[in-house]
## 1
Amino acid sequence: MKATRTVRNILANYEGETPGVKAQLCRMLMQGKLGGTGKMIILPVDQGFEHGPARSFAPNPDAYDPHYHYQLAIDAGLSAYAAPLGPLEAGADTFAGQVPTILKVNSANSLMSDTAGKNQAVTASVDDALRLGCSAIGFTIYPGSDAALDMFEEIVEMRREAAACGLATVIWSYPRGEAITKDGETAIDIAAYAAHIAALLGAHIIKVKLSTDHLMLPEAKKVYEAEGIDISTQAARVADCVKSSFNGRRLIVFSGGSKKGADSVYDDARAIRDGGGNGSIIGRNTFQRERGEALDMLGKLIDIYKGKA
Amino acid sequence: MKATRTVRNILANYEGETPGVKAQLCRMLMQGKLGGTGKMIILPVDQGFEHGPARSFAPNPDAYDPHYHYQLAIDAGLSAYAAPLGPLEAGADTFAGQVPTILKVNSANSLMSDTAGKNQAVTASVDDALRLGCSAIGFTIYPGSDAALDMFEEIVEMRREAAACGLATVIWSYPRGEAITKDGETAIDIAAYAAHIAALLGAHIIKVKLSTDHLMLPEAKKVYEAEGIDISTQAARVADCVKSSFNGRRLIVFSGGSKKGADSVYDDARAIRDGGGNGSIIGRNTFQRERGEALDMLGKLIDIYKGKA
Amino acid sequence: MKATRTVRNILANYEGETPGVKAQLCRMLMQGKLGGTGKMIILPVDQGFEHGPARSFAPNPDAYDPHYHYQLAIDAGLSAYAAPLGPLEAGADTFAGQVPTILKVNSANSLMSDTAGKNQAVTASVDDALRLGCSAIGFTIYPGSDAALDMFEEIVEMRREAAACGLATVIWSYPRGEAITKDGETAIDIAAYAAHIAALLGAHIIKVKLSTDHLMLPEAKKVYEAEGIDISTQAARVADCVKSSFNGRRLIVFSGGSKKGADSVYDDARAIRDGGGNGSIIGRNTFQRERGEALDMLGKLIDIYKGKA
Amino acid sequence: MKATRTVRNILANYEGETPGVKAQLCRMLMQGKLGGTGKMIILPVDQGFEHGPARSFAPNPDAYDPHYHYQLAIDAGLSAYAAPLGPLEAGADTFAGQVPTILKVNSANSLMSDTAGKNQAVTASVDDALRLGCSAIGFTIYPGSDAALDMFEEIVEMRREAAACGLATVIWSYPRGEAITKDGETAIDIAAYAAHIAALLGAHIIKVKLSTDHLMLPEAKKVYEAEGIDISTQAARVADCVKSSFNGRRLIVFSGGSKKGADSVYDDARAIRDGGGNGSIIGRNTFQRERGEALDMLGKLIDIYKGKA
Amino acid sequence: MKATRTVRNILANYEGETPGVKAQLCRMLMQGKLGGTGKMIILPVDQGFEHGPARSFAPNPDAYDPHYHYQLAIDAGLSAYAAPLGPLEAGADTFAGQVPTILKVNSANSLMSDTAGKNQAVTASVDDALRLGCSAIGFTIYPGSDAALDMFEEIVEMRREAAACGLATVIWSYPRGEAITKDGETAIDIAAYAAHIAALLGAHIIKVKLSTDHLMLPEAKKVYEAEGIDISTQAARVADCVKSSFNGRRLIVFSGGSKKGADSVYDDARAIRDGGGNGSIIGRNTFQRERGEALDMLGKLIDIYKGKA
């Protein structure tokens, strides 16, 4: 499978990285229906850890079975499938080689008291990722949490180990915790900062949430206003995040959030596309829908990223 | 000993796992009077650590002797015997090879202040398990405790090491601690979540408590009600836990709790069987009874799991 | 030196242990005037660490010199001499091979604030014990302290390393800390629990204090009363601790406490003997007495354990 | 490239250091337009981490691109370019060998609550520096912070590893935290102390801020006054810092702070030069200016250090 | 250089220690003008770390240069020179082999808040000491601090590593912290206890402060009074510390404290000599004096230890 010029140009930005990492990035960028376009759609299924099984899977009970998600990602022609250790292991053999997988190596849960702090447990390793034939590891950081410095130190260690083994690293950069207001969690200045931190830490693919036009930090607000940075549309805000990811030298994808109407999902994707983002990580909006409906939605999203919808 | 088709089907769910782990799971599933049925009864004796020697063994003083439990598990035809380092060592030579053993590698005790938190000490290692010829390690997690993230990190490390050495991992998933109400410790939404977390962490065998029809988390309650998940009977609740264990792709056994009437013990077993669970871990209800009585009870439980009682 | 049948029977209880550990237990059990009887008297000198030099040695200033204790243990025909790193090193060469030594690998001191917690520092290693030709390591745990889980984890690690090198492990199990009342420190239910924990952790020799007939834990009190466990005499209480040490499968010795009248010391020893205990660890009651007096006392204690006094 | 006598004299002060470290110091001292003079100008770009991307780069949007800074350092003839992992990686291949690079291995950010404390995360390693062909690692310490002892221990470990691999170590010594008043952060007694601590820890190049004539510590104030130490001018204060850096045996450079008028920047440089300092680390004052303007400013600074302006 | 009988007798007390350690002790005991007498004077220069450069060196500005101290120790004929990593490195090559050096491997500073606790940072390693050709490592413990247990664990680890490499260990035992009153820091019962703890931890050379006749601990006070221990003179108190150092089996030196009158310094030395101590560690009283004056003072101290003054 020969990489397209678009993909080769993206890979060229990863200077000094091991050929193994570039090969895995190439594999994901050439996979499925968006293969070769420089765009990606990733299916992430770690909501069972975050919210529990009933909230995640009861709306579409077939999704209790880990095989369901592998099959959905394959049939929809997605770029990759991301999940924690247990679910990946449950289908590693059956689906070996059919879709790139991302091992989510840390996870939070809904059974934590406030004093336990905003943090996640490291629940898998680079060795696990290698053993299971994954293309990348995925790791969540919480910029703004009192645990953030520790989380940064964990991921740089794991990233180094992963890259040395030829695995790529995806960082979920989710502002949250003691230094972040509720509105700040989706403020554009914070989102751009979160993307930048992921890039600084060496992420190969950055995952952030779509943002609002709120500005949380007074010092940043001043600059946004003084320099006239456009944050009036979702596409403009996506563009600000792309610029903060080394001026577009790093792949950045955006997450969809909780289940919502299909039109809203499509609008998000058009904004990501128009702002120069590289795609979507979309979970609950697909696997909580009936399979046929989910496949239709994913097909339309692919069309959007191809500029056909 | 040729594995039955039932057992081979169970083993096939452990995709990508080492042959060593599968061999140990097979050994336990083919052991004793339930051998080959896909059902298990495990004798766990760590109550001396949890509650002290008098509360555990004074009702049946023969049980002060570690040899007593090995012999009970063998004579009753059970699937495995689980205990901490000291007691396993005290009979490791005498009973070598006669019953699969599970080394309980962490333990709590009743001499802890509230500020010490809900946690356990790691009191044995994978090396100990190998040296003592064990089939598996057993580890307790407390989802909901402020120590939970640390406990998750400990068991994923030990599980990885154990699996690499060909040992299986049993996770005791007991919701407890700062984020869990008293009723919540046995609420069905929490029990299913606890089983799911164990599966996500890579448990080969999951151990949870039987649950009530209480729903602790408001967000989960909404979903249980909206989706009409049946939690009205113990068997239905067992089925919810089984579904949350990767739709039955992982072995799940249920614990019996403190000593109670024999009929109640039998009713529990029937519910586990009817809900699709894989069996019982039953300690105090057997070793705190006189030996003859305990053997009778275990015989009847075996009949129940065989569908004969 | 051929081991007696009594000693061989004791060693047979250490199933699955390395020959090295058994050899060291044999060495201590065959040493001195109690050699071969299955009884032991150990001289422990870590009070300088715990209480400072003046309180420990000023009553008998010869005892400031580490050589004094080696010589006392040898001349009295004791089973072993236990001390921290510094004092053992100060006589390791002069007395090499003349008496088994136990390296006390952790220690507390009297210069700690309340907020520093009930804990000890690990002040020596298994490597030190090997280098100094010791027979065993000694380690104190504080069941009931907020540091207890950490202490348990430390000793199981050190015990594993020691056993692999052919060294035995003695656990000083001293209930103390946030979860223990003052009376509870010597309550019989707590003492038996403490002995049991040491056994569970893999101690080869267990050291506990003699206890009173107080029962601290309400749940335990209920069982002691319901089952009619005899705790009316010191001998009965010793027997309860022996039973809690795997029904006598582990060596258990009792400590003497602060200096007191000779008759009281002898009464303690008779109770230990009559309750089935394996002997005494006796420090201040010997080295704070003038040497001649100490030798007389130790001679009489040996006679008591031999059933002659 | 033959080292000048001036440079050889400087290197001679690094007694007992590995030839690899000396070679990297030599490389930086012989690089660019100040090569051979014993003076240095370093371009540091870690403000994106510290203050976020908008505050750092929006005033001169070309600076969002990591290549911009490499090119600026090269075109201006600077001694070295310092940045965190991500940005160095983004240009490591394109600019390989064209300018010495310093990998900033720890970083702070503006998204931390007060309770998170004054600390930084270690976000890169010596291995990363080697892989990326760097000349040195850079590390920030916060003397006066409750995290200071930990930071000291981190850098001495990393410095040892770096030196053994032939990499130099630059320490950013920034007084900050619980023991430092706001005025104290730039007080001359604190600045000199901070420089001295960096020297004691083994820094090869020391980076401190320019200071005021405030004296924070009463004990130090007494000595400054009693001994009549001149702190009336910036040059005199630079000289005090130089003297505190082993009487000039260690290279010391001064940072410029936030963006300000060009004349002020030039005055600072003259004071550094006249006080015997080795140069400037200057970031925002250059990259937040338009490129042509920045090159002019850097050219003038070079002239100042050469004594021509 | 043949060791004197006095020195050989001292070395014989270090039973079971490596020949490497004994060789380094011998080297220091045979060095300089006190060589062979069993007495030592050590020059320690870590005050720049503890109090900052101005308070330490401004009274005698030549002392800002690390070479100054090497030269002073050599010219005065002292036994050894002790300093942190940075200053030792600054002269390691120039003065190689001319005076035994002690690498001070941990250090405190005056920029710490109360909540940071009484602790020190480990700022150098055994590897550093070997690389720099040192004879020993030096380590400060704070008995009575909440950090004391951690400090004890650090030094026993470093001592073990050092001894295995043939380096001696000097322990600065300075009571300080939460459990110690201001008067208690120099109380004789605390000083003797501090010396004893250092000996127990395996120190080859013990450094304590001279003490007052205050008794801090009530339990100790009782014993001092009951046993009639003489603490009325400085010499008597030195003797109590010597006795607490394994009855004189360990070298013990005393520190001089802040700068004071020369007569007072001489009186201290006579008390150390008369009480059986092994010498002085004297820093500020020498390097804060003008060089000629310092050499005179050191000459007189040497005479005192030789019994000539």
Note: Strands of chain A lie at 40-44, 80-83, 101-104, 106-107, 121-122, 136-141, 168-173, 205-209, 251-255, 279-281.
## 2
Amino acid sequence: MKISARNVLAGKVQNITKGAVNAEVTLALQNGETVVAIITNSSVDSLGLVHGGAAFAIVKASDVMIGKGLDGHKLSARNVLASKIVKLQDGAVNSEVVVRMTGGTEVVASITKESVKSLGLKIGDDVFAVVKASHVMIGA
Amino acid sequence: MKISARNVLAGKVQNITKGAVNAEVTLALQNGETVVAIITNSSVDSLGLVHGGAAFAIVKASDVMIGKGLDGHKLSARNVLASKIVKLQDGAVNSEVVVRMTGGTEVVASITKESVKSLGLKIGDDVFAVVKASHVMIGA
Amino acid sequence: MKISARNVLAGKVQNITKGAVNAEVTLALQNGETVVAIITNSSVDSLGLVHGGAAFAIVKASDVMIGKGLDGHKLSARNVLASKIVKLQDGAVNSEVVVRMTGGTEVVASITKESVKSLGLKIGDDVFAVVKASHVMIGA
């Protein structure tokens, strides 16, 4: 499978909670992190997702935010992943930030250049990769 | 109506499934494709959506992914639309990819230039436009 | 808290409607606007959101659309905020549009340069900032 989403993270299904229309799926990644996705019930069925089954969490770079100093704060985003910046590339308006999570998995974020500046982001910084569960797709 | 979302696709409501907070709305586009959206129940009511009624599926270019060789794979994204690349335009960090679905409808995707490169995308390629249902708005 | 999302809007919780998996949270911003977010039930609990409590609506610039002449139309997006364009900055592919809502709060949108052109956007224009509820995070 080739997909333009920059983040395709392999893992195993750890939990599935079905609602009326949507379901919450938790994936345990290979390096120990967990990722939560909100997908439709129909997708849980059509993908045949079961506890322990192999699956991918797929996230577009533009759906990843970078946070700093979030320790005392709380976010509704279900995915707040402790990371370190390993690469920074500026464009005209947007920048690409690559972070490595504590478990070693890399995640690419596309944020505005203005945010890189206002957060003073630089390689080596301890940050958080923040992703809303509804922005995570599941592949199988 | 003028909206910055690059994809405003005319269709008719084919199905509505209401949940506790969210609803799943399926639209049949004019050229035969179907698009699934997750919107709130309140929006179904305030838009007065009914089976057979005219409506628009509205999707930001940045919410469209491009997939290749997805045949053997499954994605939780409810919208995986067989398409052909008809236009490619590179920016500094992001690229714009225009695809034409088999029914003829064009869809614009904004993906990173790195993805265009790593997937080896070029005009004429058979690809899939992939959109999560929760990223589709409905206009009426 | 420092986060790359360009829009961090302070407000108070006005309403919470829980579903099976997701919840709808309405925030009253300081300048009078209201913003609706869809987050998971777990997040409502872990953030300890209560009626009247202080909270932030957090939205990535890339999740904000700009609409014009929407008056006769209806959108499923729960956040359609009357605004005026105060700043425009073009990149190679994307542009940054800053709008000021009637209450005074500024919102940053990242849209394609092509949309700026096709909508004929310019400083001083009356527009709407459009954001799907599922794209709004809540911080506390």
Note: Chain A has a mean pLDDT of 92.
